[in-house]
């Protein structure tokens, strides 16, 4: 089973994440940021990943440290669960509509991290979640999981756009981690 259990404790945050990439979309998530919890539940459900996140942070300051650190730990958990990535499809993509919004996500689990995100938000927050943290969250994931990801979204409603991005990431990741063979999918022989 491709599973990981990662903890991170700093002076600003305390995070425990359990991830099962071969799950059933069951989640138990508590970050203290309601909209963020909703997005992480959607990621779990649409990726068929079992995900437990227990996180506390200095929300009295703002949501930056907690969202960033959850991205770091989730990225580490993805990398740990995948191990050497032997046999995986490596590439995945998804186009996810949500009412007027449409998100496109393409990714490569190829050992090099890079993020291109084309997204603009009208409001500074959705609930208590800062919209500027969308890019930073995905940067934290891809840097720690060594994923190259290109994503874009358009629409009128920030809630719909962000949710379509999280679901798009889930579907693209699910497709990229499918086991298709035994070897490493690279002409170099390693990722």
Walk me through the structure.
The chain is α+β, with helices and mostly antiparallel strands. The protein has a single domain (about 5-175), classed as Ribosomal Protein S5, domain 2, CATH 3.30.230.40. It is built from four helices and ten strands. A four-stranded mixed sheet has the order 1-2-4-3, covered by helices on one side. The longest helix has 19 residues, at about 65-80. The protein starts with a strand and ends in a 15-residue tail after the last helix. The mean pLDDT is about 95.
Shape: globular
CATH topology: Ribosomal Protein S5, domain 2
Radius of gyration: 16 Å
* Mean pLDDT across all amino acids: 96
Low-confidence parts lasting 5 or more residues at pLDDT below 50?
A: none
Number of domains: 1
Output the CATH homologous superfamily: Imidazole glycerol phosphate dehydratase, domain 1
| β-strand amount | 25-35%
